[in-house]
Each structure stands twice: as structure tokens, then as C-alpha cells.
Amino acid sequence: MTDAFCAHLGFEVVAVGEGQARLVARVRPEHLNLHGSAHGGFLYALADAAFAFASNSRGRPAVALSAHIEYFRPAHEGDVLEAVATETHLGRRVATYQVRLCKDTTLVALFTGTVYRMEERA
């Protein structure tokens, strides 16, 4: 399971379950910023993709209301990053997720996102 944007960036969807998702990606040369580390937009996109898969895992379409990311450590070319999304709140219309973006056991970034849960598809 993936989408065209994820495939373009080299994201691999490892697992999706109710309210959770796990993606991995290797930092490639085209993902680097002018300092030689992974671009913040690449890191954000990986976390956002995990957020999207987790928030849409319950059969009801969900669209983002807000998202926030904190960057803690750099990632470099060749690093394999893992984005693990976990549901922290599930309401009737709104749900919130936290995504831990790690390199091995090192926390690289922490993402929090909230979605609006639409009616189930017929």
C-alpha cells in the first residue's frame, strides 16, 4: 500500500493497523539540504505520510486539520529513517496522532497531527 507521492520519495509502507502505521525511507542525495543533511521537508513528508496512513486506517476517510513537527537531530545520506504513527486520541469526528521519526534508536523528529474524520464511504 502506498501512493504516488510516497513512491516518488522512496517511502516504504511496512505496516498499517487500526490507528497506527510504520514507514521507512533511506535518505538519498536528492533529499539533502544545503548543509548536507536531510531536508526538513523530506522529514516532514515522511512523518506526514505515516500520519495519513494511520488516520485513514479505520475505514473512514480523514483529512488533516493541523500538524506540527519538532526537529531534534539531523539525518544524513544513507541513513534509514523509521516513522511510527500512533493514535493518541480517537473521537467521533476528530483524532490525533503522534509520529516518532527515528534513525536506529535516535529520535530525529516528533510530529503531532489532528484529523477530521468524515463519514464512512458507501
UniProtKB/TrEMBL annotation:
Keywords: Hydrolase
Domain of life where this protein originates: Bacteria
Any one GO molecular-function label of the UniProt entry: acyl-CoA hydrolase activity
Pfam families, sorted: 4HBT
InterPro entries noted in UniProt: Acyl-CoA_thioesterase_PaaI (IPR052723), HotDog_dom_sf (IPR029069), PaaD (IPR011973), PAAI_dom (IPR003736), Thioestr_dom (IPR006683)
Residue spans crossing the bilayer: none
Name of this protein: Phenylacetic acid degradation protein PaaD
Organism: Marinithermus hydrothermalis (strain DSM 14884 / JCM 11576 / T1)
